[in-house]
Amino acid sequence: QVQLQESGPGLVKPSQTLSLTCTVSGESIDTAFYYWSWIRQPPGKGLEWIGYIDYRGGTRYSPSLTNRTSISRDTSRNQFTLQLSSVTPEDTAVYYCGTNGVTPVRAVCASLSECYEFWGQGTQVTVSS
Question: What whole-number distance in Å separates Cα of residue 58 and Cα of residue 35?
Fold first, then answer.
């Protein structure tokens, strides 16, 4: 059973960089062909795919966020990290990490269960001064 757990600050000031870590257990993040994603859900809105990092460390980001997004990994800790720069209050959301194994997810999903086999419980991030 794969388990994912998001961690990071719950409050970020505008213009700063949001940084979240996803700790994975039950599967190595460099298992062949696996993809590891970040997703968010702003209040009152649907899910938004942010990006993923693959088993080789390759990344792909949402076109709407690519200029501000960076996803990296630490294989020794079995973690991958999201950094979102120049945040505004519109970046306030519940942030999730998830995986659908060897199938990359870039679609808009109505629910996490529609697109991901495993996901974390989510962490609330509020952007406010």
Answer: 9
Which is higher by pLDDT, 123 or 104?
123
E strands in the chain: 3-7, 11-12, 18-25, 35-41, 48-54, 59-61, 69-74, 79-84, 93-99, 118-119, 123-127
Give percent of the chain above pLDDT 70: 100
Quick one: which of 116, 82, 67, 60 has its CA closest to 12? 82
Six token digits for residue 111: 């629910």
- For residue 77 the two structure tokens come to 């800790």
Residue 51 burial (CB < 10 Å; 0-12/13-18/19+)? Answer: buried
> CB under 8 Å to 13, separation ≥6 — which residues?
127, 128, 129
Hey, what are 12's tokens? 């970020």
User: What's the CA gap between 11 and 51, in Å, rounded?
Assistant: 21
Q: Would you state the structure tokens that stand for residue 43, as one six-digit string?
A: 């209040």
State the DSSP H helix or E strand holding residue 112, giving kind and residue range, or none if neither: helix 112-115
